[in-house]
Amino acid sequence: MNQEGLASYTLRRAAGGHGNFARVLVGFPQNAPDHINLSGDGEPVTQEWLDAAYDGVQYAKETLNRADKVLPFCIEGSLADTRIDTIFCAAAIATSRLFGENGWTEFFDGEKWIITNLDEKSS
């Protein structure tokens, strides 16, 4: 588990003919930074972005079989390069790193970003 009780992940790559960007900071409620910034990078965070971050956190918790309360503390994006799938992936990977899982990464399947675990062995 992350010693500071905080973890972040940035997805910043070109795929599908355009740039993709999202940065999400997650953590345990007791480790909340002094200033929680849900409107990072100057762009207002929409309800869709916030929902995507919570969905990414929940996905990671369910996949890792964790019941800990984890919250997004900062969501950064841009109107031009940030989509729901980029935020979902950044939040999920940040949450996995919070729990010490470092093998998760994002993969663009031609339409959207999805999560893959590089640590899983093929049968």
Automatic annotation (TrEMBL):
Organism: Bremerella cremea
Protein name: Uncharacterized protein
